[in-house]
Write a structure and sequence with these properties.
The protein is of the alpha/beta class and about 400 residues long. About 30% of the residues lie in helices and about 30% in strands. Strands 1, 4, 5, 6, 7, 10, 11 and 12 form an 8-stranded mixed sheet that branches. The chain starts with a strand and ends with a strand. About 40% of the residues are buried.
């Protein structure tokens, strides 16, 4: 088999990072640092497969921190060794059956690798057995000992190496096997020691490595500059329920979670709250989770007479599972009567309480159809809802 594969090295413990979690599993942009690194390679059209090398002790946290979408797209992870060099070799050996033409080896702690950089590394392998991204050293370099400067080192030929480092597969796995007892700081140095050439490709300052907490803060700041690593989604919901004569023990209608005295009532399997039903559908739509009927079928007796706040709570639960956040809600109730104006602020407060967001992000308004149609004839009440939310990219 030919092609180009990516190996994400995520077996380190990150002792210099000092967080509660190894840096690669730390939260970033609604996912983790590792997910951000993985996503860049899964999305690239010239990468045929992606595999992670992880610590055996981190197996549980790896599976918990990788989203279902990513985990199903990845090749099964392999366990690393005591050193980075041993971990990389374990990863390379796992690709023997695939026998790719090329492989890219990337540090999990570099979450901002660009598609352009990946492309340039792959292209360089047409002419050289190895290729790495580099950045020129711009600071003055000093050689020091015992707290004193010995000399100034010329920086003209000095460069900082980054990942992904790309290689022709046969050459790099052979070099790793032969030099497994050596102590190398990166994979390019292993190829160099084997006497093979490594090409230089322009690196990127945004492709920095998270090593310390300061680096982690920098990463979060960089995401904020880009919009927090989120995209804006919009969902639309619509519902209508028939108005019927009420029984003596019925107390009016419920709209947007607020009970309103009225001489008729809304007919529905649950409490027939058209406002909350439209809102629930809009939330489901924004996160791509179908509609209210799929989650709460009207044929299921469990939902008979149920408070529609349960539907909203389920939608909010799915929003949380996806790492999303609701930005704005706009609900329009369509009816001739009852009058909605006196209850609008109470409705906004009820919805704000259900969703744990500020009331200023919620609009509830009403309109009529000027006597036209079913709502104009007073046969029912309809509701429309629009929701915007931010979803992790």
């Amino acid at each position: 088999m030919s092609g180009c594969y990516a190996l994400i090295v995520a077996a380190g413990s990150g002792q210099r990072f000092g967080g509660e979690l190894p840096k690669q599993y730390s939260p970033l942009g609604g996912g983790t640092v590792l997910e951000a690194s993985i996503g860049a390679f899964l999305a690239h059209p010239k990468i045929d497969g992606v595999r992670c090398v992880i610590s055996k002790d981190d197996a549980d946290i790896y599976h918990k921190s990788i989203s279902h979408i990513y985990e199903h797209s990845l090749l099964s992870p392999v366990f690393g060794g005591e050193t980075r060099q041993q971990s990389v070799l374990s990863g390379l050996e796992s690709f023997v059956e695939e026998n790719p033409d090329k492989i890219l080896i990337h540090d999990a702690a570099r979450p901002f690798v660009s598609a352009e950089l990946i492309e340039n590394i792959i292209s360089s392998l047409e002419k050289s057995p190895g290729a790495i991204p580099t950045l020129a050293v711009v600071d003055t370099i000093k050689s020091c000992s015992d707290g004193l400067v010995d000399k100034t080192v010329p920086r003209d030929s000095l460069f900082r190496a980054q990942t992904p480092q790309g290689f022709r597969f046969k050459e790099i796995i052979t070099a790793h096997r032969e030099l497994i007892k050596e102590s190398m700081t990166d994979d390019a140095s292993i190829l160099e020691k084997s006497g093979l050439t490594v090409a230089m490709v322009a690196g990127s300052e945004q492709n920095f490595k998270i090593t310390t907490q300061d680096d982690y803060d920098r990463a979060k700041g960089y995401l904020n500059m880009l919009g927090g690593g989120f995209e804006t989604r919009t969902g639309f919901g619509y519902d209508v329920h028939r108005l019927v004569d009420k029984n003596d023990d019925e107390g009016g209608i419920r709209l947007c979670g607020v009970d309103i005295p009225f001489n008729r009532t809304l007919l529905g399997h649950s409490d027939a709250d058209v406002g909350l039903h439209a809102l629930t559908d809009a939330i489901f739509g924004a996160i791509g989770e179908g509609d209210i009927g799929e989650h709460f079928p009207p044929t299921d007796s469990r939902w008979k007479g149920l408070d529609s706040e349960v539907f909203v709570a389920r939608a909010l639960e799915l929003v949380g599972e996806k790492g999303a956040k609701i930005n704005n809600i706009d609900i329009t109730l369509v009816c001739e009567t009852p009058k909605i104006g006196p209850h609008r602020n109470h409705m906004r407060a009820r919805i704000a309480s259900m969703l744990n967001i500020d009331k200023s992000r919620i609009s509830v308004k009403a309109t009529t159809t000027e006597g036209l149609g079913a709502t104009g004839r007073g046969e029912g009440i309809a509701a429309q809802a629009v929701v915007t939310l931010s979803l992790p990219v």
